[in-house]
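Entry 12.
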Amino acid sequence: MAQETTVDIHPNHTQTHDDSWNGGEEPFKASYGKLMMWYFLLSDAFTFAGFLIAYGALRFSVNAWPVPDFVFNTAPFGIHGAPLIFVTFMTFVLIVSSVTVLRAVQEGKHENQSGVVKWLVLTVLGGGLFLGCQAWEWTNLITAEGVTVYNNPFSTHLENGKYLSLAELEQEKNLTKVTKTIHGQEVTYFTDPKTKQDFFEKKDHYGKNYAGEAISAGKSYLITYHDGMYMPGAYKNEAGQLKAEPMGPKAFGALFFFITGFHGFHVFSGLVILAVMAMNVSSGFYAARKNGYEMVEKAGLYWHFVDLVWVFVFLVFYLI
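Predicted 3D structure (tokens):
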């Protein structure tokens, strides 16, 4: 037999809830907005990790992968032979911008409107300088070095040998001497009529002549350069076989431009956000909220993440 339960409520009894539920306690004392920012940064970290792991897998599976010290040894104002100097400056600028955005967050905690604006503007300037440096590096690699997503003249020797000069090539049998105007420049080289393989004197794009220089396995090189065109430099291996230097792995340029470009897009997005935020702070838009300029703190988290990711990009592309 079913039992009935009767609950009597006194008509004059009034229940009060001073601690009424308003959505639950904030995890780790973080607001909903900051928590969602952490979720976004975590997912973005997985994306970058996938790209860098893919680069690392290809990097160590290709023996002829170019050495960073040889590829990134130029800087503005005609500086050559200074490996990693320029990218080190870029990294320093980005790290300093992380400090300035931290100062903006600190000033926001103290409700210092002018201080927040000042440090945000300095962060934007630092990030803009970093993007400008990256634009120069891309331009230099594409126009001066010839590295594109389809082309890579940088590589590494896989066998010992010796470069050959034009005079030494002329002494080789079965080769035909050819003089041709390429991009307005008269170029002399030799070709094999049977294999249609061309052989050029080894020079880099600064005009340095490598003819007669011994080469060794594991040494980096840039194949022959003639007025914007890259040619297969001639060499003889230890077995006496005449060969032409192969182009470097195409994946190098494709991965470099994609991953650094993806990071650059994050920097650009952060600059836009910080610039808009600086204008909002200047207008007093966030002052009325009296929450320690939490929007600035959330943007600061994103900017710190962008800086941290660059450290890993720097390690993978420029140091390994």
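Annotation: The chain has two domains: 27-150+251-319, 154-246. Residues 154-246 form one domain.
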